């Protein structure tokens, strides 16, 4: 028998595990971004993306292209929804709005925080922001994302919940 | 600028090489491009669909190339964007067309559309604002 845990302890561990699984099962572009999960909670997630010169606009690698920030936000919104939306079976991005608040000019790691701040039966509303991991560096982007969500009994979180240790 | 020169300019941008697109047609107000799918573009491994961020990045790249081309600005400054996802972008070629809808003195507005087999069935549309000063 698995030792009974308090509900909160259980749910925060489960969320952290679910976030790691989400990240590990990723292929393709999410692997390229090499994301590290720093916070995984119902009320928001924080991811770290290491500097990568391939995502820059200049050969010297001093400035990131805006598109990579949009891509990072889209992925982080996905994870926030994955954790926050109950019985989530699938989701699709309806739209993204991104504001570029200043040039993304740094070789520091990028941090992104996103939260699903409202969910209805069919729609999840997200907001997010991006900044560099350096002292005094202002935000470089803010964003809103709207997602169409399908709920059902085959939720990934439920599957994780029934797994024993090491499975 | 000729198509060859524009392509050469794009090929000097590391992130544009990462995307790996090709400019196929250029005139004053409109640019067309195509991109073949590679494994690093994929966001949904089951459907082999493009990551939404890749579709958005491709549209932004072509929008900014339209600005570069018209105003001879090497690196246009993006202000904001809206991307509307209309259909899944599945395995295969992705096409993008960027049209300049506002030619202001200080800013420009660019509309983009992305499609796969049928231009009448777009997978995404984008609206991008750039600062020209």
Automatic annotation (TrEMBL), chain A:
Domain Thioesterase: 63-135
Keywords from the UniProt entry: Hydrolase
Gene3D superfamilies: Hotdog Thioesterase
InterPro entries linked to this entry: HotDog_dom_sf, PAAI_dom, Thioestr_dom
Pfam family, one: 4HBT
Domain of life: Bacteria
NCBIfam families, per database record: unchar_dom_1 (TIGR00369)
Protein name, per record: PaaI family thioesterase
Species assigned in the record: Ruegeria aquimaris
UniProtKB/TrEMBL annotation, chain B:
InterPro entries documented for this protein: HotDog_dom_sf, PAAI_dom, TesB_ACOT8-like_N
Pfam family, one: 4HBT_3
Domain called Acyl-CoA thioesterase-like N-terminal HotDog: residue spans: 49-130
Record-given protein name: PaaI family thioesterase
Gene source species: Ruegeria aquimaris
